[in-house]
Amino acid sequence: NYKNKNKKSHIFQIIYSYFSQKVITVEYFINLILYKYNTKIDDNKHLISSEFLIIEDFIIFAYRKINHNKINKMATTADFKNGLCIVFKDDLYTIVQFQHVKPGKGPAFVRTKLRNVKTGRILENTFTSGIKIDTARIERRPYQFLYKDGEDYVMMHTETYDQVNIPEDLINAPQFLKEGDAVEMVVHADTETPLYVELLPSVVLEVTYTEPGLKGDTASSTALKPAEVETGAKVMVPLFIEMGEKIRINTAEGTYMERIR
């Protein structure tokens, strides 16, 4: 009815004016409205005033909509640049390459190559010129692996000393990770959500088991044999590598690089 429509409009004005001045939580957001209209919340957190029952969904929707716009900044294709992180198909991608195209006929468009932030997979996509895109701010932060806690890996920020538990599937090469190793954590800075953890490009590990090499095997040999390193990971190594020696491993490919003397 007319009365409820006016109240709904008034509540939206309050929401907008307060949110434009400060960042508010959903609890503060709801309580502000309740205080203004002197109503109460029941044990199930539902508004019990008859006038508020019809607009409860509106309040929650408005909060989520405003919060979404705050977290995901809007941009257009005119803002594209290499390295920009965008929200595409409900996932995060960075722009690897882009090209603005103005055909003789038809609308202008932008050809892009995008890299999935989590998987590294590259895909190509064409955007209509001027279309609006959600962007996200990601940061690379220095961490150190402390120890395993069940299935999680406990990481410590090397500057703030804050600790966070990271599941194994967010680490690019957990089989080569040992306590004390330095890593980089990629974080969605607006939501403080860890996206993935990267080891250094290479690590040095001790060979704890491998079959002895045959007499005459030299550093020029191209034949390989299996070996186990101190973290328990398996890697193929040249025949001349012996137990107790240290080797450098490419963490991205999981392959032997060189013997450390």
Radius of gyration (CA) equals 27 Å
| Strand line-up across the major sheet | 1-6-2-3-4-5
Contiguous runs where pLDDT drops below 50 for at least 5 residues: 1-8, 18-26, 40-55, 60-71
Number of helices: 4
Portion of residues within helices: 10-25%
Sheet/helix structural class: alpha+beta
Question: Mind describing the biggest β-sheet?
Answer: 6 strands, antiparallel
Roughly what is the average pLDDT, rounded to an integer? Answer: 79
Distance from N terminus to C terminus (CA atoms, Å) equals 84 Å
Envelope shape: elongated
Strand content: 35-45%
What series of H and E elements makes up the topology? HHHHEEEEEEEEEEEEEEEE
Number of strands: 16
Describe this structure in words.
This protein is an alpha+beta fold. It is 19% helix and 41% strand. The chain has four helices and 16 strands. Strands 1-6-2-3-4-5 form a six-stranded antiparallel beta sheet. The protein has a five-stranded antiparallel beta sheet with strand order 9-8-7-10-11, with no helix packed on it. Helix 1 (2-19) packs parallel to helix 4 (56-71). The radius of gyration is 27 Å and the shape is elongated.
